[in-house]
Specification:
It is a single chain. The protein is 26% helix and 18% strand. The radius of gyration is 47 Å and the shape is elongated. Among the domains are: 60 residues, SH3 type barrels (Roll); 238 residues, YjeF N-terminal domain (Rossmann fold, 3-Layer(aba) Sandwich), CATH 3.40.50. By secondary structure, it is of the alpha/beta class. It has twelve helices and 16 strands. Helix 9 packs parallel to helix 10. The protein has a ten-stranded mixed sheet with strand order 8-7-16-15-14-13-12-9-10-11. Strands 1, 2, 3, 4, 5 and 6 form a six-stranded antiparallel sheet that branches. The termini are far apart. One of its GO terms (biological process) is deadenylation-independent decapping of nuclear-transcribed mRNA.
Length: 478
Amino acid sequence: MAADWLGSLVSINCGPTLGVYQGEVSSVDQSSQTISLRQPFHNGIKCPVPEVTFSAIDIKELKILDIKNGNARNSSSVSTKVSSAPVAVPKGDPRSVEKVNSPQHCSKSYGERHLDVPGQPKGFRRRHNSWSSSSRGANQVTPKKNGVKNGQMKHRDDECFGDGVDDGLDTDFDFEGNLALFDKAAVFSEIDISERRNGARSRGTPQEQTPSRYRHDENILEAKPIVYRQITVPQPGAKEYCTDSGLVVPSISYELHKRLLTVAERHGLSLERRLEMTGVCASQMALTLLGGPNRFTPKNLHQRPTVALLCGPHVQGAQGISCGRHLSNHEVEVILFLPNFVKMLDSVTSELTLFNKTGGKQVSSIKDLPDTPVDLIINCLDCHENTFLMDQPWYRAAADWANQNRAPVLSLDPPVSGQGQAVEAKWSLSLCLPLPLAEGAGRVYLCDIGVPRQVFQEVGIKYHSPFGCKFVIPLHSA
């Protein structure tokens, strides 16, 4: 009886370790319970040996793919002798557990859909679900659907395609018939009528009407047009600046700037308050220029930055001393240069008293300034009114030291262009509104010292704050 199965095509599953083999039955030995396959394929790849022999204890599942004589009854007897174990199906598979000796299984395998593999002998086909997709070889091709001829496929392959397959899938989709169901002209006509009806209800000119459709990046809330010139002055200066957001900031003359501060002081913004605000803003800018949070960490206490502060006996010098006090409180080594004078302004004296409480160093001679480059130089030597100070020996000596030192220079509240600056700055910090500065002022920054809006209105300035969420902003030449 075993000879009846010679030449049949079978698939043998030996478990996840050994894999799946397919081939033509060359011999069946009932005494030793072995079966041999000729021209075998292992997991879809042709084996290098011409014949492979299997023992019954190694076979987990045996499937007959093509019966030589078409005898379904003999299929049951041979499968029972070779392997009496039930056919293992994956967990969760909708099929129930089958027996290899099921006549329905053998008859259903014949004449159904198969997959062609290049290099296999003629007539050898393997089922789509004979092994899992994870065990396919790299040389396998995409499965192809064989045609049905003369009504050979009378039963669909439930094992491969599952239950409930609609037979109507074999018919072609009627694009023209389905497209005719959509009356495009009527739909667009309805849309146009709806838009005209909504447009007739709206009021105003077509430019004022709200668009009916928006892009994905448009805001559906109506917004006023942006006005970039929000500050107007009665006597514009020689220059105009703009912020990073495009707002125009005009410069003002020193006379208008002085009148603005006088009115602010009359309303309560005293000189002491202005000095404190200027010192805070200038120290924040200096801390940023020194490295900001990357420099000022507990791990860098041994690398304290050094700042040289050059001040004169005037209000600008008092602003610089206030800045030095805040820097010294933030662990910056501050060296304050202030020449000895018999009589100084009260604001300078009070700021100097507070500075000496911080542990900062004060010198009155240029010789006491460091010879090595410092991290930053803050220049407060210049004054808006007393230009005769530029002829003083201490002024020229301090300016020469600053120019010879290779450290960058920050000028605090520099004078207008034309008065001359002996120290060339990399940055300049103006107060409230900028003055028309010279080219040697470097990059211009503006700080907010807290002047109210109505104070601007009293001197004829239409003002809207350009600072946003900051107290110090950069300005660019317009």
